[in-house]
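Appendix B.2, paired examples.
Example (i):
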Amino acid sequence: MKVLIIGSGGREHAIADAFGRSSICEKLYVSPGNAGIAIEHECLALDDQHKILSFCQKEGIDLVFIGPEQPIAEGLSDFLRQHKVKVFAPSQAAARLETSKAFAKDLMQRHQVPTARYQMVYDITEAKAVLAEFSLPVVLKADGLAAGKGVEIAHSFEQAVTICRELLAQKSGSTGVLVEEFLKGWEVSLFAITDGRDYQTTLFAQDHKQLYDNDLGPNTGGMGAYCPVAEAEPYRKAIEQDILKPVLAAMRDEGCPYTGVLYLGLMITKEGPKVIEFNLPFRRSGDSGSAATFKD
């Protein structure tokens, strides 16, 4: 089997090493890779979809594994599948679970998947009216991809309005801002590997996210994590039955079954597990940029 991995980070390095240990992987390429990956595996620059396809056809690539979310959001997996190249990654439409917070939240609401109360706003006048209906603190999220850092927690109405204005200007007001209830509890992450119907979940992980001691700083994209998390195991069945299975079924109903790896960013609340957000293949723990507090 010949494998091409798309990506350049530590995630792709770990995936490359895993493929490299397989007896059926006869040749492995990584694009673009990095200096560390290049010590052990062949790296090459394939900087657009057509170059990737041409390389796959020329070299007889059997499987493309897409690590980063951006190429998936841009439709790389769909493009390769259209040309009969096998890909391990969700489609562009299925990727909306991460690339559009509005899509993900609307889907969860329609299918009774437990998550925080929310409202999308698209201009500052609407934002002020909606913010008045939410208790403080309140969570504000830029719609779309934000590399794990598109989240702010406002502790006053004035601060919330300022953040909304900044996020709307940053996005040109076109995709809106998600105003979300602040969930209290403790946060945990879980991966699911799925063909769109059946699935296998992994061990739980928990990350260190806020910048300062005692959870006083702003959210980051993750500053380390540990695994397993024994305290989360009693919630696995509820997470699979009340969250994962309904979401996979909903995506099938939407006509875009989710295949590949789905990251579930979760908050364990007094009412049970709730979804903070979803991420695409093997996003590192901590990318959810959640409204988490680690205090009961």
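Example (ii):
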Amino acid sequence: MQRPKKRSANRRTLLIGISTRALADSAVAGNHRVVALDYFGDRDKPGGAPGYSLKRDWGLDFSPANLLLASRKIDYQSVVYTSNLENYPEVVAAFDRNGNVLGNSPQSLQAVRSWGILRRFCAENRIRTPRTLLPGEENLAGGDTKWLVKSEHSGGGHGIRPWQGKSLQEGHILQEAVDGQPASILFVADGKKSRILGVTEQLIGRPHFCDAPYRWCGNLVSMDAHDGGPLRRYLETMVSSFVKRFGLRGVNGIDFMVDRMSAEKPVYFLEVNPRYTAAMELLEQACNINIFSLHIAGADGVLPTVSPTLHRPKAYSAKGIVFARRNLTIQQTDGWIDRQRRDIPFPGDRVAAGAPICSVFAWGDSRKSCLHRLQTAADAVRMDAGDKLEGREPC
């Protein structure tokens, strides 16, 4: 199990991932010294965090290997990673040699992202999960069950598709399609213990945001999600089991499916996201917490004495990711930040079909009104970007 290391209070922390804008916002708000390196280099990156972009500064495509290469030109003493470095423990190990990684170790990542290990762990701990098959086990997928093909090392629902009966490629799994409400629980851990930060509803495959039926396109959080009850207690027990077994540190998320028909085991476990997740920005905006500070403390082995108190100014809040329906060239983004848009492209940026244009936010007194406002915000982005939707039904 990884052990916390003594760190300099004056360290400069490198933030790395495909997108670091939200993480950098949190770090700056928490008065941490950081420098960011990602692919997009968004227009609205915070002024308090120097930022570098693979695309803009080096003309490189996104890859963890290219992040490692570009980082050698940056001065830093520690590293915090976000998506999708969790799928590349060997790259995280290289960063840990060159700078002090604050978060889950390469060994933890290797284990917690392996379905061969997760299947055994869930069975031993009576954690309910959809039936999951590995390459070579396709013959066990008979019957009337609907099966989905997933990449073992992907995220955000990318590449999920119905199984057509073909043999699995290496690095892919078959998973039973289950009904329920997609959700995630967010927590901070110190390698042994954990504190729950919140629960969010996941927005999956919604046509006002994306065209892929299994793609993650946002989250919604409500006051009710933070209340106690059997579901909350089950989730806390599940999180505790994962933290103890895999030595998780810092902030993490677990995706699951709520099954309202089962009182004993009310959720299906889906996957662990062993790093900062995009849903955490939504919690941070709605509540009086600083996610980056909690992450650094957890990585150093320090947890709040109780789960952070969540004071919500609105009953419901939501974040949506607007994905382009066709190839675009962005014309103008002045004033976008004043319209509750984030991860904003620069004028002249090209956005490929299926790639994100930007993020939008909305608040409301009910789930329905919040989602309606989020949908309206997404439609406005498409109008401004020349990617207008036609004939879509409301959320």
